[in-house]
Each structure stands twice: as structure tokens, then as C-alpha cells.
């Protein structure tokens, strides 16, 4: 990597010119020097792209270092700061491999800033929450997912959050499975879409380990109806073991029946103080 240092020599007001042939505005002098391989390694260690205690025999070659530095400069040109790199390398180390080409992810940056659209700063924040989004295909994943979510009515997808970042990086078929689950338990398509708008996190819930067990407990143990679930779909957001089951059993013991929202929304202190 080539750095250029400009040394401008100021004139001294009380000194007479040595020769009248000197130009009135002297051209600044330039010193050129090449950053040493050791300094580059130190920089990559400071960014945590290289572990500070990496053995000298396992350090990358000068060519590999130049390649990684090119990636660093590319990402910084998109708005990332030095403090962001430790997270990027932790969650997506392939970004800093010698096989990675920055031009491969340019379409993702373009998609985020023009089609989503998000500001460059918000685009970086979304990527930091889900760095693997950089390796998603715009044509076959990101754009179809965005269009599908918009059709359902999900809004504010450009707001940087863990949910939005992972939603955008989820294939349409996986999203459709959650709609299919809701349809299978007697939600209309419109009602299912409304649930996804009110609770977009449902797209990230496991069918086998989350949605089906909670649904079956609601019907079989709590003896509640699907209509209650339609009124309060946020039921799916609460832990079955830590919230739903203990509170249901506590109210059953007290012979008290509450609407789902009152049963689950209150904090533990308020809930158990009210229903001693």
C-alpha cells in the first residue's frame, strides 16, 4: 500500500529570497514511502481481523494482507468504522478471506440503499445485525422477500433492527410456511397477514419448537379458542415454559380466568401481587 506524505515548506516573512529565479508559489515537496508489512499486520490486529496473539508462522503473506486491506477500505468507503470490524469478522469471517471480492457484494449495498431504501448509515447497521445478508442473492432472495413482506403489509423494513435484518435475509418459502401454519389453524389469509404485520417476529419462530407446542397448549390445556388467539397473536411471543405455563397454572389454582393479554403482558411483580 502506498502512502503519500505532503511536506509543505512555509516561507518566512523577514527572509529575503536567495534568488529572483525562484517561483513565487513554490511547489510542495513530496515524500513517498511504502507502509511496511509489519505496520499493516499491526493495523489488522488492531481491527481484530487478525488475532493479536497470532503466531508469526501463521500470519498472512504480504499479498494476502494487501487483499484484506482492500476489503477493509471498500467497507469503510460504504460507511463502516474501525469499531465495526470486530463484529464483522466474528459473524462473517469469510469477508476477510483471500477469495472474497468486494465487487461481489456491491449489488447488496445498491439494493439496500435504492430499493429498500435505507440510508448508507442504516444499511451498515442492518448488515452489522446480519452480516450474512451480504452473501444473499438480490434477484433470488432479497428482492422477492422485500416484495412479499410489502404485499403482506409489513412496514418500516429499512429501520435497522435485528428483526428487519434477518427478515430481509429469509427466503420467501420460509415466510410462506408461517402463513401456512396460521391458515391451518383457521386463520383466513387476511387474518394471517394481519398477524404478521402485528407480530413480524413470528417469521423467525420455529414451527416444531415454538408455534405448534404453544398452539396445542392453548387449546388442550388452557381450553382457549382460536378466536382469542386472533385477538392476541402476541401470545406466540411469550415463553411457554417461563411465562405461559406458570401463569396458567397459577390462575387455574386461584380459579381465575383472564384474557390472554392481561395474563401475559403484566410483569411478574404486578401479576403475582394482583393474583396472590
In short, what is this structure?
This protein has 276 residues and is mainly α.
Write the layout of secondary structure elements.
Elements: E1 2-7, E2 29-34, H1 37-46, H2 62-77, H3 85-91, H4 106-115, H5 120-129, H6 138-152, H7 162-168, H8 172-184, H9 189-198, H10 207-221, H11 226-231, H12 240-253, H13 260-265, H14 268-274
Antiparallel strand pairs: 1-2
Helix pairs in contact: 1-2
**How can the largest sheet be summarized?**
2 strands, antiparallel
Strand order of the largest sheet: 1-2
User: What's the helix count?
Assistant: 14
Order of helices and strands: EEHHHHHHHHHHHHHH
| Uncertain ranges | 1-22, 29-33
How many runs of DSSP E, i.e. beta strands? 2
Describe this entry's structure for a reader.
This protein is mainly α and 276 residues long. Among the domains are: 1-8 and 24-79, no CATH class; 205-276. The protein has 14 helices and two strands; from the N terminus they run ββαααααααααααααα. The longest helix is centred in the first third of the chain and has 16 residues, at 62-77. The radius of gyration is 29 Å and the shape is elongated. This is Transcription termination factor MTEF1, chloroplastic. Keywords: Transcription, Transcription regulation, Transcription termination, Transit peptide. Belongs to the mTERF family. It comes from Juglans regia (English walnut).
